[in-house]
Structure formats: structure tokens, C-alpha cells
Amino acid sequence: MADRTPSPAVFEFNSGRLCLDFTNTVRARPLSDRVESINQYSDLLEWARQATILTAEEASALAQEARRRPRQAAETLAQAIALREAIHGLFSARAAGLPVPPADLRTLNQAIGRAMAHAGLTPSGSRFGWSWPEAPVDLDRVSWWVARSAAELLTSSDLTFVRECASYDCGWLFMDTTKNRSRRWCNMRTCGNRAKGRRHYERKKGAQRPPP
Fold it and tell me: What tens digit of pLDDT does each residue of 162-210 get?
């Protein structure tokens, strides 16, 4: 599959979950020339900075570490992309009511294992939560957050709210929190309006067709 590869300066975060936002870094996913937004390790860091899972200082430290270890950074990027595709496969199947692909679940479980190897419990008010040491230079730190988000959603009752955009050329995932659970589009201003435009065009085209 050929990917177009412009790297956007601004990513979108409107799916309702971090892990779904990460899957949505590919545009036109079902098409043969889909648009890839994360083409290099620096793109991954920029996405994480905009997602606020890394501070600017942490992103800078990881960028410096990536320059020092370019081969490992490339491997980490490939691992993150594989995780992204696995998460999309899992939630896309779940949204369609299909069995989840075993290979995708295996990829996610491996990522969760790597993440939890670095995690520890820390107090947060009257409760405890999982966290990671501050400002480490582990190149795969971004994937820890993504894997954790996916695991939390898969084991939550909110899993039933996951939807895939109804546009044939989109493939983005989102949380449908509408009252009657009837949301069809990742964004009404983009995919929704394009679908309305296509329906209008088809109706107009049909009306202009001469009778047999």
C-alpha cells in the first residue's frame, strides 16, 4: 500500500480517547494512497507533545536521544506504527461486531507488557494510579501511553461506544457519546458534509437522467 507522506504541523484530537486519536494519524486509511502523518520519529514526538503526554522538555530530550541512537529510533517508530495498526484493527473489528484479529491482540499485549515493565503505582489523592518515572530517555515512551489507553478502553464498559466513521474513504475511529448513539461521522464538518454532498450530487444526477 502506497502512503502519501506530508507531515502536518497540527494533529487532531477529537476521537474521545488517546489510543483512537493515535489511530487517526492516518487519513484516507481504506484507500491505496492513504495519507501517513507519522513518517519519522520526530513526528511521533510532536504528536505526543500535542497530545500532552510529553512535555516540551521530555520531547526535546527524546529527540536528542534519537539523534544519538538513530537505528533504535527507527525501530521504535516501526514498533509504534505496528501498535497503531493493531489498535485500529482491534477497535475497527469491535465496532463492526466482528471477532478481533488475534495477531493485533498479540501486538497490543506485547506493547502492554513493555509499558508495564516500567510502570509503578503512585498515590493520587485517596487513590492510586499507574505512572512512569519522569523524564526517562526510553525511546518507546510514547507507546506506553498509547498501549495503556487501548487496554483501559478495551476493558471498560465504554468499549460499546467505539465507532468507525461511515465515510468509505476515512477509517477514523471515535467515541459515540450522543444520547441515542446515532453518530456516524468522525467529523460532521468534513466526512459528514462530503457524504451529504455526494448524496445531493447523486440525486441531482438521477433527476437529470432522461427517462427510458
Answer: 999 999 899 999 999 999 988 999 987 778 666 565 554 455 555 556 6
Does residue 88 surpass a pLDDT of 80? yes
- Cβ–Cβ < 8 Å for 11, 25: yes
What one-character DSSP code corresponds to residue 162?
E
Evaluated on CA atoms 28, 29, 32, 36, the torsion sign reads positive
Alpha helices in 51-140 (DSSP H): 56-68, 70-95, 102-116
Go through 46-56 and write b for each residue having 16 or more CB atoms within 10 A of its CB, e for each that does not. Answer: bbbbbbebbee
Do 171 and 29 form a contact (C-beta atoms < 8 A)? Answer: yes
176, 164 contact by CB (below 8 A): no
**Average pLDDT of the chain?**
89
Helix spans in the chain (H): 18-23, 41-50, 56-68, 70-95, 102-116, 141-154, 193-208
Strand partners, 127: 124
Contacts of 89 (CB under 8 A, 6+ apart): 100, 101, 104
**Helices (runs of H) and strands (runs of E) counted in the chain:** 7, 6
Q: Give the C-alpha separation, 45 to 50, whole Å.
A: 9
Nearest CA among 55, 57, 17, 54 for reference residue 140: 54
Give the pLDDT of residue 200.
Answer: 40
Fold of 18-183: Jann2411-like fold (1.10.3300)
